[in-house]
Each structure stands twice: as C-alpha cells, then as structure tokens.
Amino acid sequence: MSYTIDTNLAAHQVSEGFLSHTSDFLSVLFNRPKKVIMGQLRSGQEFDFSGSTEPCVVMNLTRGSLGPDTTTDEGAIERYVSAISEHLQNALGVSKSRIMIFYYEHDMALIGNNGRTLKRIWSESGTFPSN
Fold first, then answer.
1. From the centroid of its chain, how far is CA 67?
2. CA angle 55, 10, 105 (to 5 degrees)
3. Host H or E run for residue 65
4. What's the CA angle centered on 62, arms 73 and 26, to 5 degrees?
5. Is 123:66 a contact under the CB 8 Å cutoff?
6. Residues 62-96 pLDDT 10s
7. Nearest CA to 3 among 15, 29, 16?
C-alpha cells in the first residue's frame, strides 16, 4: 500500500513522526503489516481548493489486493475515507471539508517490488491478508 499526502502546510507545521503515525494508523485500518506501507509527504505545495488557499490536504492512496477482479464497495470506501479524514484533521489541524482523498484499488499483479509482483511475493509467502 502506498500513499502520498500533498498539503499547502509548511514543513514546520507538520509534526515530527507524522508519516510514521499515519502508516501505523493505515496498518490498523486496512489490516496490513506496516512493512508493506509506504508514505510520502509533500508540504509547502500551492493549492487553490474550492477557490481558497486556506490549509488543505490531498491524499492519493493505493491499496493492493489479491483478487484480479476486486470490486470496490462504496460503503467500505466511505468508512475508510471517514476514518482517514478524521486522522488527518486531528494530526494536521485541517478541516475535513478541506481534505480530498483519492482511493485506488489495484490487483497486486500490477504492483512490483524487488523485481517481482507483489501478488507472487505474497502468494508464495502466504502471510498477506486477503481482504
């Protein structure tokens, strides 16, 4: 799982350890080991969000799944988005109304690491949760 957080907050406005805490949070939320989560923070970006330059956050989150034809359950996505929005609001002090989350679900056969697909790595080890 990978995520990128872009914000117009300056780097000094983001608490030390924010990415690590966010990865811990996502690990629990999605029932994934932290070792398969990668995060990136890009602070100090310029934004015009709904006609305003007030503090905002844009998050792109990609989750790998084992099934080739994974369907996205809107109810589940709303639960994830609600929990993530709450986390980001608490951690960054940005109103949930100024947080946009783009959620992507990909077959792990389309994601690679160390020269192999994640689907092959996890199917051979048998340790990755299937949901």
1. 19
2. 65
3. strand 57-65
4. 85
5. yes
6. 987 755 445 567 888 899 999 999 999 999 999 99
7. 29
- Taking phi first (over 0 means left), then psi (-120 to 50 degrees means alpha), and beta for anything else, what does residue 93 get? left
Cβ-based neighbours of 47, under 8 Å, separated by 6 or more: 6, 7, 8, 53, 56, 58
How buried is residue 15: exposed, middle or buried, by Cβ count under 10 Å (0-12/13-18/19+)? exposed
Tokens of 70: 């994974």
Tokens, residue 73: 């359950």
Residue 27, SS3 per DSSP: helix
C-alpha 70, offset from chain centre: 18
Q: What residues have CB less than 8 Å from 37, skipping those under 6 apart?
A: 1, 2, 3, 23, 26, 27
Q: With beta carbons less than 8 A apart as the criterion, state whether 57 and 63 touch.
A: no
The pLDDT score that the predictor gives to residue 70 is 53
DSSP state for residue 76 in the 8-state scheme: H
Q: What pLDDT shows up at residue 126?
A: 65
Q: What number of other Cβ atoms are within 10 A of residue 60's Cβ?
A: 15
State the residue for tokens 């990128």: 4
